Amino acid sequence: RKEVEQDPGPFNVPEGATVAFNCTYSNSASQSFFWYRQDCRKEPKLLMSVYSSGNEDGRFTAQLNRASQYISLLIRDSKLSDSATYLCVVNRGRTYKYIFGTGTRLKVLA
Amino acid sequence: GAVVSQHPSRVICKSGTSVKIECRSLDFQATTMFWYRQFPKKSLMLMATSNEGSKATYEQGVEKDKFLINHASLTLSTLTVTSAHPEDSSFYICSAPRSGRDNEQFFGPGTRLTVL
User: Fold this and answer.
1) Could you report the per-residue pLDDT of B6-22, keeping only the tens digit for each?
2) Is B109 an interface residue toward A (CB < 8 Å)?
């Protein structure tokens, strides 16, 4: 079993739709959680950190459920520019090591 | 904000050549940097942890004699792919963490290596 698992998609959604991505992690000692966005042939860029209390940034909402070892990302009112691969990232304890999920591809259609 | 640079951005070389990739943190010091490899449509795979002033720590299955890492200063780590072969063709990305609440890491723009 992979340490961080995501549905690879692709998710094809119309503009304006709401879409949700899920991610599970297996290491209960994981301490920090992130969603990164990666455009084709580019480096990952931080979208948002994920906290137990949940956090929201504009159209994006992230949630963490430590008991179920589950992270989610909700995108509301999808834009064409949201098309990308969304990477779930887990930090192993205090080592700064990032473990990446395989990523979920999103394609927003006009 | 913090920035990490990588050089070169693209390399095309013949089989058997050694290729050096540089990773620099531009406005902060990084005692630790990370090297990743990404194959097409695959996730980033951590190759090794580069430690300033000491040996790199390699992930399981990564050949340390093949992928030489040198962390010469607090702002520079280099990855040398020795005697590159076509199967080494990949997207190599470095990252550097900035100390703080979330252990956030900043990624370089990546180096696309093509070995003919």
Assistant:
1) 999 999 999 999 999 99
2) yes
